[in-house]
Design goal:
Helix content: 25-40%
Radius of gyration: 19 Å
Order of helices and strands: EHEEHEHHEHEHEHEEEHEEHEEHEH
CATH class of the largest domain: Alpha Beta
Length: about 325
C-alpha cells in the first residue's frame, strides 16, 4: 500500500528510478512520472487505466526547463507564462522529440504548466526532468483533492503519495493553445476566461470535436461518480425522481423535500464560486458514498469560475444521459 508522507527525497528517489508517485498541486492531485521516460509514462496510463489517445500534462519547475523540451515559445504564450506561472494555466506548445509521443497521444504539441504548490515545486527543482502528471484517480472518475482520496483509489497501485494537504483550488487547470497566433481555450479551469482576457484580449472557445482530443480532459464524459448524476432544476428533478432515494448537490441552499443529511452544499460559508470550485470534487465523492440511488445537481452562475464548475458538472453527468 502507498505511504502518505511529505518526504520530497523519498518522492525524488522513486521518480528517478522510473516509479510513479502522487503529487499535490493547487488544482488536484496528480499521478506523476518522468516525462522523458516512456516506461514511466506507460505506468501512468496502466495505473489509471487511461486510454492512450488522451494526452497528459507535463509539469515543469521553471520557464528555462520548459524551453528544454519545446521547439519554440510564441510571444503571447510566453507573455501568459510570465504572468500566470506558477499557476493553474496549461499552455499547448510545440514539442521536441525528447517528449515521448505517448505523452501527447502522438500530437506535435505538449500541454505544459508550472504548478503553484511549494512541495511539488521543490520536488521539480530537485529533479533533472519534468513530470507528466494527469489527475491521480482511475480514468473517468472524480478527481482527487486530498491525499486520502488518492489512497482510497490508487493506494494499492503506487508506492508513495506526497502529501500537500487539501488542494486550494479544486478544479483542474485551464488549457490554452494558439492557432496562427490566435489564442484558443481548449479546457475551462481554475483560471477564468475573464482573467485571461484581461491579459491578452478576446479568446475563442474550442468546439468539441475529434481534433479537440489532442488536449487533456477533453472527453465528453469525465469526472463522473459511480452513482447516476442528473443536472437540472432541483425542484423539477425531485418531482421527477421522488420514488428514489435522492442526494442533492446544491450551491448554497437546502431543499426541504430531501433529508439534509443527503444534501451537500458547495458554498456553505461564503456563497462564492471560489468556495464552490474548491469543494466540487470532494462533494461529489461524499454523495457517491451515501446510501442513495441518484444524485441531483444544478448549475451554478455561469460566470468566471462558474463556467469551469458547470463544465465539470456537464461532463460528470454525460455518461448518465439518455440517448436521443
Amino acid at each position: 500500500m502507498a505511504i502518505i508522507g511529505s518526504n520530497i527525497l523519498q518522492a525524488q528517489y522513486l521518480l528517478a528510478r522510473g516509479e510513479v508517485v502522487a503529487i499535490p498541486t493547487e488544482t488536484v492531485y496528480g499521478l506523476a512520472g518522468n516525462a522523458y521516460n516512456e516506461q514511466a509514462v506507460s505506468k501512468i496510463f496502466t495505473i489509471k487505466q487511461r486510454p492512450t489517445f488522451d494526452p497528459l500534462i507535463v509539469h515543469a519547475s521553471c520557464l528555462a526547463q520548459v524551453e528544454e523540451f519545446v521547439t519554440h515559445f510564441p510571444a503571447k504564450a510566453y507573455e501568459l507564462a510570465e504572468h500566470c506561472w506558477p499557476g493553474p494555466l496549461t499552455i499547448l506548445l510545440p514539442k521536441k522529440a525528447i517528449i515521448p509521443d505517448l505523452v501527447t497521444a502522438g500530437f506535435d504539441r505538449v500541454a505544459v504548466r508550472i504548478p503553484d504548490h511549494p512541495l511539488t515545486l521543490a520536488l521539480l527543482q530537485a529533479l533533472p526532468f519534468p513530470l507528466a502528471a494527469p489527475s491521480a484517480n482511475p480514468f473517468g472518475y472524480i478527481s482527487p483533492t486530498t491525499p486520502q482520496h488518492v489512497h482510497d483509489q490508487l493506494g494499492d497501485k503506487i508506492p508513495y503519495i506526497l502529501s500537500g494537504q487539501a488542494c486550494k483550488l479544486g478544479i483542474e487547470s485551464t488549457i490554452i493553445g494558439f492557432a496562427h497566433t490566435k489564442p484558443i481555450i481548449y479546457r475551462l479551469g481554475s483560471m477564468s476566461l475573464e482573467a485571461l482576457e484581461q491579459l491578452i484580449g478576446p479568446l475563442t472557445m474550442a468546439h468539441d470535436s475529434p481534433g479537440h482530443l489532442q488536449t487533456p480532459g477533453s472527453l465528453v464524459g469525465h469526472y463522473s461518480p459511480h452513482k447516476i448524476l442528473k443536472i437540472g432544476t432541483i425542484q423539477t428533478l425531485i418531482s421527477q425522481y421522488q420514488d428514489q432515494r435522492l442526494g442533492i448537490l446544491t450551491f448554497d441552499q437546502y431543499y426541504k423535500e430531501v433529508d439534509p443529511e443527503y444534501q451537500v452544499r458547495l458554498a456553505p460559508t461564503t456563497g462564492s464560486l471560489e468556495e464552490a470550485a474548491t469543494n466540487l470534487f470532494a462533494a461529489l465523492r461524499k454523495l457517491d458514498q451515501m446510501p442513495i440511488d441518484l444524485i441531483l445537481g444544478t448549475y451554478v452562475p455561469n460566470i468566471k469560475l462558474g463556467r469551469a464548475i458547470n463544465d465539470r458538472l456537464t461532463r460528470a453527468a454525460a455518461k448518465f444521459m439518455e440517448p436521443r
